[in-house]
Amino acid sequence: METSQRLLELEMPVGYRFVPTDEELVKYYLANKVLYKPLPVKIIREIDAHDLYSKHPKCLVGNGTFNDNEREWFFFIYKDEYFLGKTRSTRMVGNGIGFWRFIGEEEPIHNSEGDIFAFKIYLTYFSGSPPHAKKTHWRMEEYRLQTEINGRNKQEVQECILARIIRGRNYTDSI
């Protein structure tokens, strides 16, 4: 297990499981991060978009060191020229080893008052390159805030999104 992951575990109480709702992820983690406010707990790793989208998901979550109980990993993704230059339909990984493909439409996230305050998009990882790519068990959910956050426009806050990478149950069948 890598050192940064061990440090994260040391900050967490014994038996603690990080299973936030969409609203909690956006309200307490993503919004605080982009507004430079303290986070409730430092459990979400930070990564540049290029680093995230240039590696196979297995490499991002621990190079095979995960166990059967680990199925979700969280990342703050800092937008960079790589991220901003990609099309909406796919994000290529590495040298044609695979790509993330958007599945469905962007879904609004409502706060407890019923107002839309963020958006969520689903992605699936495909190994290989089109047209012979194979759908894998890896999924990602990306969360982004509205254009205005607490009365501040996007130019006044960090350009960051939050991602939840999910490993499907049948992880031995595909890469």
From TrEMBL:
<dbReference type="Pfam" id="PF02365">
    <property type="entry name" value="NAM"/>
</dbReference>
<feature type="domain" description="NAC">
    <location>
        <begin position="12"/>
        <end position="168"/>
    </location>
</feature>
<keyword id="KW-0539">Nucleus</keyword>
<keyword id="KW-0238">DNA-binding</keyword>
<protein>
    <submittedName>
        <fullName>Protein SOMBRERO-like</fullName>
    </submittedName>
</protein>
<keyword id="KW-0804">Transcription</keyword>
<dbReference type="InterPro" id="IPR003441">
    <property type="entry name" value="NAC-dom"/>
</dbReference>
<keyword id="KW-0805">Transcription regulation</keyword>
<dbReference type="InterPro" id="IPR036093">
    <property type="entry name" value="NAC_dom_sf"/>
</dbReference>
